[in-house]
Amino acid sequence: MKGRAGKSVRLTVWSVLMAVLAAAFLVSAVMVTVTLVRYRHEAAELDALAKSLPEREPAVIPAPSPPPQESAAPDTPEDPPPVEAEDPVPQEPETPPEPEILPRYEELYAQNPELFGWIEIPGTLINYPVMHTPDDPEKYLHADFDGEYSFSGIPFMDADCFPDCGNYLLYGHDMKNKTMFTAILGYRRKSFWTEHPIIYFDTLTQPGEYQVVAAFYDKVHQQDENVFKYYKCTDLTDEEDFNYYVSNVMSMALYDTGIDVAWGDSLLTLSTCSYQTDNGRFVVVAKRVTETEEPPAEAPDSSPSSNG
């Protein structure tokens, strides 16, 4: 009798254990399914925004104009008699006109004025609005275009950036479904850069085309660490700050793109999470193309880097 009772208890325990494991598996499967459906829904919403946009306008900007040459004064037989100056009439200082929003983004801006621009990397899933909320820096870390909760979030600009700051710094998640900024991790391989050398980033008022110049791994450092922190370098309107940023970026680059960066260039920096270390980040830096710098049809030296 004791043997039968013991066997019965073991069977009961085994049955309960199997039921618990089955329930746990079922719950996990449901959670995974819900997550996948949510990811798909969030991606579909952003895809619909992208498809609603008109065709892209030309992105290349004019090169800076050289300073005007001073013409020599013509020879005159004698100096003209002095002319009495009249009292100047006081004039109101002219207010520069507000830049006009590109027609391509007028409708989206009307829906959400926290829109700053749009980023696209041809041949990847990156084709998203870029938000900017200086008073609430990470608002769109987990929010969709309408401000509702979204695990994927939307790419957003660093709070310290401002128009023509010299370096637009954008953040986006590394997602398991390959959306947001996951694709920029491809730039760890030189072959990927060869195939995707151009990034389009438009502000609301000006289209922009950028050449990728460097990609590197980094991390979020402790506040008291006296090291280069790429995420602290947004205002590059000072030449010394610009050169400091560029020299550090180039020294950390995984491979040489052969593209020069000089004072006066406008930069774009993309950042996403990576897991090579605690608080790891992967960073891509690009410079804006001007009329005098047409992007190459093919990038040189397509062999993958040993660092990739």
Describe, in plain words, how this protein is organized in 3D:
The chain is an alpha+beta fold. It folds into 2 domains: 1-52; 104-308, Sortase, Chain: A, CATH 2.40.260.10. It has 4 helices and 8 strands, in the order ααββββαββαββ. The protein has helices spanning 2-51, 106-111, 190-195, 239-252; strands spanning 115-120, 127-131, 156-157, 167-171, 198-203, 209-219, 267-273, 280-288. It is elongated, with a radius of gyration of 28 Å. The N and C termini lie far apart (68 Å). The model is unreliable at 298-308 (pLDDT under 50).
SSE diagram, text form:
Elements: H1 2-51, H2 106-111, E1 115-120, E2 127-131, E3 156-157, E4 167-171, H3 190-195, E5 198-203, E6 209-219, H4 239-252, E7 267-273, E8 280-288
Parallel strand pairs: 4-7
Antiparallel strand pairs: 1-2, 1-5, 3-4, 5-6, 6-8, 7-8
Principal-axis shape: elongated
Radius of gyration, whole Å? 28 Å
Low-pLDDT runs of 5+ residues are 298-308
| Assembly state of the chains shown | single chain
Sequence of secondary-structure elements: HHEEEEHEEHEE
* Mean pLDDT over all positions: 84
Distance between the termini: 68 Å
Provide the helix percentage: 10-25%
Domains counted in the coordinates: how many?
2
The strand count comes to: 8
Using the coordinates above, name the CATH class of the largest domain.
Answer: Mainly Beta
Q: Please describe the biggest sheet, giving its number of strands, its sense, and whether it closes into a barrel.
A: 8 strands, mixed
